[in-house]
Amino acid sequence: MAKRLFIALFVWILGGVLASAQNQSTVVVPFGTTYFPFEEVRLLDSPFLTLQQKGKEYLLWLNPDSLLHFYRIEAGLAPKAAPYAGWESQDVWGAGPLRGGFLGFYLSSVSMMYQSTGDDNLLQRLKYILEELKLCQKAGKDGFLLGIKNGRELFQEVVSGKINTNNPTVNGVWAPVYLINKMLLGLSSVYTQCKLKDALPISVRLADWFGYMVLDKLTDEQIQQLLICEHGSINESYVDIYELTGEKRFLDWARRLNDRAMWVPLSEGKDILFGWHANTQIPKFTGFHKYYLHTGDRRFLLAAENFWKIVVQNHTWVIGGNSTGEHFFQKEEFGERILQIGGPETCNSVNMLRLTESLFSQYPDASKAAYYERVLFNHILSAYDPIEGTCCYFTSMRPGHYRIYASRDSSFWCCGHTGLESPAKLGKFIYSHEKSSVRVNLFIPSVLSWKAKGLELIQHNNFPESDLVNFTLTLKKKQKLALRIRKPEWTNHVSFMVNGKIIDQPLLDKDGYWVIERVWGKKNVITLQFSLHVYVEHLIGSKQYIALLYGPYVLAGRLGKENLPVTFLGKMNNTAMNKIDLDKVPTWKIPIEQIPAYVEPNSGDALSFRIKLEGFENMVLEPFYKIHFERYAVYWPVKFTGLN
User: Fold this and answer.
1) 440: closest CA among 36, 123, 70, 158?
2) CA nearest 70: which of 100, 95, 106?
3) Ranges for the DUF4986 domain (predicted)?
4) Are 513 and 578 members of one domain?
């Protein structure tokens, strides 16, 4: 045994040394599946299309000159418009504002939204902002491009050896490396999504400035000290630029920007997350995975995979979000943490979806897609004000609580930052492809146009109000093609019909996808009929609370409007504060396994349920995403456990 352990350790260390030493010039790790460009997927009528339209409306409502305000000031140029309030310009927690922090997300969001909708107004916004950023860099003469006050002086202090870091500050300044990361990711998105060539030299100049002027003048230990402060996925940003330019210095800088405090223990499968600030950690692992893809260093793959599994299994609420009050906690504490008013943060879910996208592209399987679906259908879809299109910070899991949403012009919280992106990329994960196969990962009404194959796949459903999902597959010419459809875990039985004929249930592949492979004619119709039912999930680590689900949707109970605030739009306040007593939330007092039998659909309603038990009179259950501006129960207290 000792000999085997020694050999394994030797191989582990040697593999890491060799991978780090190699001069990699090409991607060494192939993809298992590939996402379609946003422009080849269009949403059809559904709650997701509604969210996309609201997101686009908000992007066009925002004034680019206000978002550029601090960039022009730091470049010595007169601003053209006043800055927005909230985190953009007001002091927060004594760390000052996150000046200019919104612009990087705005760039990536507008880029993806343009590809997703084709609205030329969005493209014109990007062109204007690029011209402004070029002016800022020209005026500054050195590639620096940040909105934070006296940013050059701050990093001169860092280079001199003064590195006082905590989370979230460096020498008292709020998350400066994070802001570099978000600007680089935004510019990368503009370049790759919209083919605007000016974006690449702007990003290269900024990355070179930080690389030559800061990173090259610090020891590895000093960089690790700098990385104590929240820095997003700065490692990913540098891999992106390496990928776009082929210049090895960017990959070398990316290696030095990998946070050892996270990748080393997670590569060993250790759950060390208790007490850590959740969203500070999540983006790093997308960077670790991307670094692996371009170096082959499996330690970083293991870190990303282990982190994903640990978060999903040990740290996730029923809606797919994780943490409470921004921090991870031990799974045994869920029963206590559910009582807090600050539930899972929207930022966390956005970034966990990014990590899932990255890992799925290498190893596509139904479990990752199921997690993606849970988060998207229940946390993301529910987190937006249906009128203003702005995003929640916290979604409380406390029974009987409610949400506060960002105001359009005076919040600019971190969740508002990441929240810009979700409506723009709703079409990304629905489909993916291999050489001669299409994967259906999500059941969302949409049109896929695979131009290279002369293929159109239209997905129609009113799901789960209806149990039918219809696909129309149109080809320019007959061809052999595999249609891979994810088998969801929330159905007991599925029947298949192809071109009007009932077929046997297709074979299930190792990834958890049904495979229908044949030579298809030019016009084909595939129909799936799902058997749907209400089912129960326990709160992780506790038998005191349960949640109810129907198909992919978490059901929540409407609990009225007692003691609610005058407005649900937050400015500096990002948390719903007004609690009600838990004894006002109905309690289940029957065996858990019997609960579904007492939940019945309301006749005539699209998707709502009633509970035929004493204490639940007049209680209406609906998918969580439909409940806004009132109190809700996602989790319900129980006093009879029944099931183990």
Assistant:
1) 36
2) 100
3) 570-636
4) no
Long-range contacts of 600-609 (CB under 8 A, 24+ apart): 606/465, 607/464, 607/465, 607/550, 607/553, 609/534, 609/550, 609/555
CB atoms within 10 A of CB 205: 17
Burial of 567 (C-beta count, 10 Å sphere; 0-12/13-18/19+): exposed
> Count of CB atoms within 10 A of residue 440's CB?
24
Confidence at residue 641, expressed as pLDDT on a 0 to 100 scale: 55
The pLDDT of 552-560, averaged and rounded, is 97
CA–CA dist 197, 17 (Å, integer):
36
- Residue 113, domain member (yes or no): no
CATH of the domain at 513: 2.60.40.1180
520 lies in the same domain as 578: no
Pair (554, 517) in one structural domain: no
Joined tokens for residue 13: 């260390």
Inform me whether the pLDDT recorded for 16 exceeds 50: no
CB atoms within 10 A of CB 76: 10
**What's the mean pLDDT when you consider all of the chain?**
94
Sheet holding 437-440, edge to edge: 34-35, 431-434, 437-440, 479-486, 513-520, 507-508
CA pair distance 117, 49, nearest whole angstrom:
10
Query: Would residue 613 count as lying in a domain?
Result: yes
Please state the domain count of the chain.
Answer: 2
Distance between alpha carbon 29 and the CA centroid of its chain, in Å? 23
Decide which of 530, 554, 573 is a domain's last residue: 530
- Residue 31 covered by a domain: no
Q: How confident is the model at residue 1 (pLDDT cuts 50, 70, 90)?
A: very low
Q: What are phi and psi for residue 512, nearest 5 degrees?
A: 90, 30
Please report, for residues 28, 121, 213, the alpha-carbon distance to residue 243 in angstroms, rounded to integers and kept in the order given. Answer: 12, 29, 22
Q: Are 569 and 388 in contact (CB under 8 A)?
A: yes
pLDDT reported for residue 605: 67
- For the stretch 183-229, pLDDT in tens is 999 999 999 999 999 999 999 999 999 999 999 999 999 999 999 99
Task: Compute the average pLDDT of residues 328-356.
Answer: 97
Query: What span, in angstroms and rounded, lies between the C-alpha atoms of 407 and 568?
Result: 9
Residue given tokens 């940003």 in the structure block: 237
Q: Residue 615 corresponds to which amino acid?
A: G
Same domain, 603 and 619: yes
Pair (581, 619) in one structural domain? yes
Does residue 480 belong to any structural domain of this protein?
A: yes
φ, ψ (nearest 5 deg) of residue 576: -75, 120
- What one-character DSSP code corresponds to residue 466? S
Same domain membership, residue 524 and residue 500: yes
Last residue of some domain: 530, 547, 579? Answer: 530
Query: What pairs with residue 401 in β-bridges?
Result: 632
pTM score above 0.85: yes
Q: What are phi and psi of 251, to 5 degrees?
A: -70, -35
User: Residue 304 and residue 267: Cα distance in Å, rounded?
Assistant: 8
As a dihedral over the C-alpha atoms of residue 260, residue 261, residue 267, residue 272, rounded to 10 degrees, the angle is 180
Give the pLDDT confidence score for residue 483 in this predicted structure.
98
